[in-house]
Amino acid sequence: MPVDSFKYLPRLIAAFYRTIERQPELPIPWTPLPRPLPGCTFGLVTSGGLYHRDVEPPFDVAREKQEPTWGDPTYRTIPTDVRQAEVAVSHLHINTRGVLSDVNILLPVHRLQELAAEGHVRGLTDHAYSFMGYQGFPPDTTAWQETYGPQVAEKLKAEGADCVLLTPA
Amino acid sequence: MPVLARTLEAAGLATILVTPMPFWAEKIGVPRTLAVEFPFGHTLGQPHDTVQQTRVIRQALAVLETARAPGTIVHSPETWPVVQRDALKSWQPDEPSPIVQIMAPRFLEMMRQQRRRKV
Question: I need a labelling partner for B100 at 20 to 30 A (CA). Which of A104, A135, A156, B61 fits?
Fold first, then answer.
């Protein structure tokens, strides 16, 4: 059965999304997997609004409350050996209880470490990167595409990443 | 997030996106996607269900390894073990987001007008 994108959306938001007509910009980028998975180092990127508690600041949800059509486009850096208690979240569009109890549902650091220990992948980069998914209304992803996305790509490559697992919230 | 998949892929990283919204992956054009029918904020499964999380991640790795053309979307067979009505409620924030507080009354009015036009 194909996944129903609207199953867990409130009816109003689903009705609005269904009115959107958009075609992908072609070509869709493509980088072949450079080697078999057991040799691959993984980067992790989420848009769950996670950040490293007491080390980096939260996303700017205070401004979003003042200016609801704006969303913080910056990113946060999280060590992949982070402990659960060191993970915090600032995201006004999801209930954060789940990820605050288990980071792996949005940033699977511990699951990837297990898969590396079993030899399925080589390992993780030293840091993961976190965005906050709400990019305003209507959404404006220019800063992601032109500034922050390329910065994260360069950091991941400098840390030895071959591939990236992306997990939106 | 689909645009970030494109950005990272264009920078030379092979990406796999796991998402509950393949709708956007298709519209924006993502290199490789695993679609999961899970509530928002729970992309890889239920908290502390390490077995399910690992299963989803291994499905994602399989897509990363086997996809041969950009725009590949594979639908995961995983199901969410909570009834839809409760799951729909529990992923949402306790207080509606600022934009939803502003837009909800406007959408409702738009939909009312559409219904009136149809009558």
Answer: A104
Residues 6+ apart with CB under 8 A from B65: A33, A36, A37
Tell whether B14 and B57 lie within a shared domain: yes
**In chain B, which among 11-40 make CB contacts under 8 A with chain A?**
11-24, 26-31, 35-40
| Domain limits for position B16 | 2-81
- Verify whether the Cβ–Cβ distance A5 to B21 is below 8 Å: yes
Number of compact structural domains in chain B: 2
- B73 and B119 inside one domain: no
Give residues 74 to 103 of B whose Cβ lies within 8 Å of A.
Answer: 75-77, 84, 87-88, 90-94, 97-103
For residues B14 and B67, membership in a common domain is answered with yes
Chain A CB contacts of B29 under 8 Å are 24-26, 28
Task: Judge: B41–A120 Cβ closer than 8 Å, yes or no.
Answer: no
* Nearest C-alpha neighbor of A134 from the set A104, A91, A165: A91
- The pTM of this model reads 0.95
For the stretch A16-70, pLDDT in tens is: 888 888 899 999 999 999 999 999 999 999 999 999 999 999 999 999 999 999 9
Q: Do residues B16 and B72 share a domain?
A: yes
Share of chain B above pLDDT 70, in %: 99
Please write the tens of the pLDDT for every residue from B45-62. 999 999 999 999 999 999
